[in-house]
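Subgroup meeting minutes
Present: P.N., E.W., G.H.
Scribe: E.W.

1. P.N. recapped why we're keeping a running log of single-chain structure predictions: easier to compare across weeks, and new members can see raw inputs and outputs side by side.
2. G.H. added today's entry (147 aa).
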Amino acid sequence: MTSRLPLANLITLGARDFGTLRDFYRRVGWPQVMDDGEFAVFELRGIVLALFPLAKLARDGNTEPEPSSGGIRFTIGIQVDSAEEVDQLTAHMRAAGAQVTKEPVDAEFFTGRSAYLCDPEGNYFEIAWADMPHNLVVIATRRAAGL
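Output recorded in log:
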């Protein structure tokens, strides 16, 4: 293995209802760069989000689809540049069909603002702004985005 770190900037979500989930992300307005009817890709700043039918993703991974039991297993973090943007993006994603599970508030675990929401299939996002320019997570996410 080389001394370079691997490039990890693609998240693929297994979609129970591919069309509904793809249309949600279209309504959010993220640039769609590919759609072949069974694989859709959206390009964000610093990461690519892909959608693939859940049964096909499970088959590709040589496993079974996870049962739909609800609840949170992971979040996809979206770092924004201001507290106001947390509110704005939350409102925008709600209008596109997201369920807001935690309204924008002053963050509990860091200095800043955050909100939680999930897409129509229960994939969770945390929208966050951290008023911490020296925070290592903030620095790393900005570097990954080429900023």
